[in-house]
Amino acid sequence: MTMPDLSSFGHDPWWLMLAKCLAIFVFLVLTVLVAILAERKILGRMQMRFGPNRVGPFGLLQSLADGVKLALKEGLIPAGVDKPIYLMAPVIAVIPAIMAFAVIPMGGLVSVFGHTTALQLTDLPVAVLYVLAVTSVGVYGIVLAGWASGSTYPLLGGLRSSAQVVSYEIAMALSFVAVFLYAGTMSTSGIVAAQHGTWFVFLLLPSFLVYVTSMVGETNRAPFDLPEAEGELVGGFHTEYSSLKFAMFMLAEYINMTTVSALATTMFFGGWQAPFPFSMIEGANSGWWPLLWFVAKVWAFLFLFMWLRATLPRLRYDQFMALGWKLLIPASLAWIVIVAITRTLRGPDAPVWVAVVVSVGAAAAGALVLMTRRSLRRHAIPTFTLPADPGAVSVYPIPPIPGTTRRNEPREHSDV
């Protein structure tokens, strides 16, 4: 496979690059404002109640009113905090989430005031690794926020959040390996170009399922929002934050949702390419139309986040960590081996359906093994070994059943 052509990047005038940076920032902020309002509206309808409907027509200004309220609130700083780190933690959480969008392709080549440029700030031969590296820096904001607060519960919430994010980043990175094998590149624009005929969600469905689960876990969203559970009585690592500092953590959460949704669109759903049947229209993948397809796909994943929050109950922390370490990571490693063997056996001239059949068969075999193992474990008969001498002490002591006594031991009588 030929290497992607990156010659169209890095030649824009300074004002055009500045305009692209500003456009990405405005797009992310507006997406956050609309997503907060849409989430409250969608959750209200799913739970058979009204969402925001007071501020502005149909409640459309509710997100703006919430932002103004947070900006005007008094910014309290507790006495026991490490002030420099306490103030820097929200910034460290927000900036990496925005920087990750620098290599996300939002469209093809367009003309802006006579200059031909791509709807992408820049691209790298290892662009996906850049996204993983930048987003992993956001964990420092979580850890430092909990540690600098000078309180026990934010520290515990920060440690649990960081453990959760780091654990699911491993499964997320492993889900990309199969995409790299099929696309032959780590460049985001090259990966989009490799999906011109068939989207990778059809060829690499197990990788997509692992990624979808990992992106929900990494963004601390329901049903994996364990550090912010109501049973903990506190809000997690940002318990001691208020005003704009608290708003920056919320901004980072929703921008991270947008970033992982855009990455899912790029890696598995053809990026900015038009979906069927719009792809049959001439010119659907040229000009500014790809920007519409890209935004629509991103919002489909954002709706998935909201749907999961309204539908699924929250998991226990041990169940959540076991899902990542004992299921997603081993399944991803096994799937990488299957994809590598499939790519080797398929060859350059074999049809696509060969890879699809092998992939589906391997996924079905893995699911059958897991189901069989679970069924055997469920129907296993537990065995208990009692000591031969009733008076002897067992290595594994067994408490007596209530209402009974051991042999040769008189029952105690009570006058009550």
TrEMBL record:
It is found in: Cell membrane; Membrane. Its EC number is 7.1.1.-. NDH-1 shuttles electrons from NADH, via FMN and iron-sulfur (Fe-S) centers, to quinones in the respiratory chain. The immediate electron acceptor for the enzyme in this species is believed to be menaquinone. Couples the redox reaction to proton translocation (for every two electrons transferred, four hydrogen ions are translocated across the cytoplasmic membrane), and thus conserves the redox energy in a proton gradient. The chain crosses the membrane at residues 14-38, 85-107, 127-149, 170-193, 199-217, 254-275, 287-308, 320-341, 353-371. Belongs to the complex I subunit 1 family. Its main location: membrane. The keyword Flavoprotein does not apply. It is an enzyme of class 7 (translocase). NDH-1 is composed of 14 different subunits. Subunits NuoA, H, J, K, L, M, N constitute the membrane sector of the complex. This is NADH-quinone oxidoreductase subunit H. GO terms for cellular component: plasma membrane. It is a multi-pass membrane protein. InterPro entries: NADH_UbQ_OxRdtase_su1/FPO, NADH_UbQ_OxRdtase_su1_CS. GO terms for biological process: aerobic respiration. It comes from the Bacteria. Keywords: Cell membrane, Membrane, NAD, Quinone, Translocase, Transmembrane, Transmembrane helix. It catalyses: a quinone + NADH + 5 H(+)(in) = a quinol + NAD(+) + 4 H(+)(out). One of its GO terms (molecular function) is NADH dehydrogenase activity. HAMAP family: NDH1_NuoH (MF_01350).
